[in-house]
Design goal:
This protein has 307 residues and is of the alpha/beta class. It is 35% helix and 20% strand.
Length: 307
């Protein structure tokens, strides 16, 4: 979001890395080393068992390891045989794995497995006494950790016998969608990205307001996690962008900027809704994922398959 009046310049700049604003677009080739990880390291996947009862869709308490530490998630599994699509769900700022759990059950009711994760950044706290530039770098590291945790979530899904490794999707809302915009440029195994309320604004004005001696450093840090820069590298036809005309958090210009940066073939839908979007957006999303991931068969009897 844009920094409100009264907030210092550095607070505004640090907010950019935290997910409230973003850097300028670029369609140049992007170095991916910052998001690389050792895929050979054990996932140490743990399943603590089912947490719900008397409902056809099973919700299981699971976790796995990423370079940043242990990632908690819910694995949502429909009672359907065969290898099914798998979809990663990622919440917004201040949320956790519970936030998108209900939408995940709607998709599971149609015949997909969902891994609803808590981002590593969700538990992070600012270091007392750190400089603004140090905090900016810390936010950069958290953004990288979230993207890598999504990539590890793909690793988890691909190890499950019930999941078809060639039909992997991603759903993100707000800050989770921002993470997804970056992941779209670095994770080729995901074939469908549904990004809700994802915006990105240029930071040149913010950088210009930073102390002159630090502007180059600020620009370098923000470019490393620039969603506009990475979303431009996504494969054509893999993106669905869903935005609200009355979004009270992300400016309309920022929502439009990310849509412009996306590759040709991206589907962009606008709704008469705020930042949280509405039932129509979820219905469109479910229909799009059903087509894109080739989800087949009738919905599971006795459960809701949409809003």
């Amino acid at each position: 979001m844009l920094a409100p009046k009264g907030i210092g310049v550095w607070a505004a700049i640090v907010a950019l890395a935290a997910g409230c604003g973003h850097t300028a677009p670029s369609r140049q080739a992007v170095a991916r080393s910052v998001f690389e990880y050792d895929a050979s390291r054990p996932l140490r996947f743990e399943d603590r068992g089912r947490v719900n009862k008397r409902y056809p869709i099973a919700i299981r308490d699971v976790s796995y390891t990423a370079p940043s530490g242990r990632v908690r998630a819910y694995l949502v599994v429909p009672p359907r045989p065969g290898r099914l699509p798998g979809v990663v769900y990622l919440h917004g700022s201040g949320g956790d794995r519970r936030e998108l759990l209900v939408p995940a059950t709607w998709l599971a009711a149609r015949g997909a497995v969902a891994l609803v994760m808590t981002a590593p950044s969700a538990a992070a706290t600012a270091a007392a006494g750190s400089s603004a530039l140090a905090e900016l770098r810390r936010q950069r590291d958290l953004a990288v950790a979230d993207v890598v945790a999504v990539r590890r979530a793909v690793d988890v899904l691909r190890t499950l016998p019930i999941v078809d490794p060639k039909r992997i999707g991603f759903v993100g809302w707000s800050a989770g969608a921002r993470t997804g915009a970056v992941a779209a440029g670095v994770e080729p195994r995901i074939r469908a990205f549904a990004l809700m309320s994802a915006g990105a604004s240029p930071v040149t004005a913010y950088v210009a307001r930073a102390p002159a001696r630090l502007r180059a450093a600020v620009a370098r840090v923000l470019r490393e996690i620039d969603p506009l820069r990475y979303v431009a590298q996504a494969r054509a036809g893999t993106l669905l962008l869903q935005d609200g005309r009355d979004d009270e958090i992300v400016p309309r210009a920022a929502l439009a900027a990310l849509a412009r940066a996306a590759p040709q073939g991206t589907r962009v839908r606008w709704y008469d809704a705020g930042h949280a979007l509405d039932a129509a957006a979820y219905r469109d999303q479910l229909a799009w994922l059903t087509r894109r991931l080739a989800i087949r068969g009738r919905p599971v009897a006795g459960v809701r398959a949409g809003p």
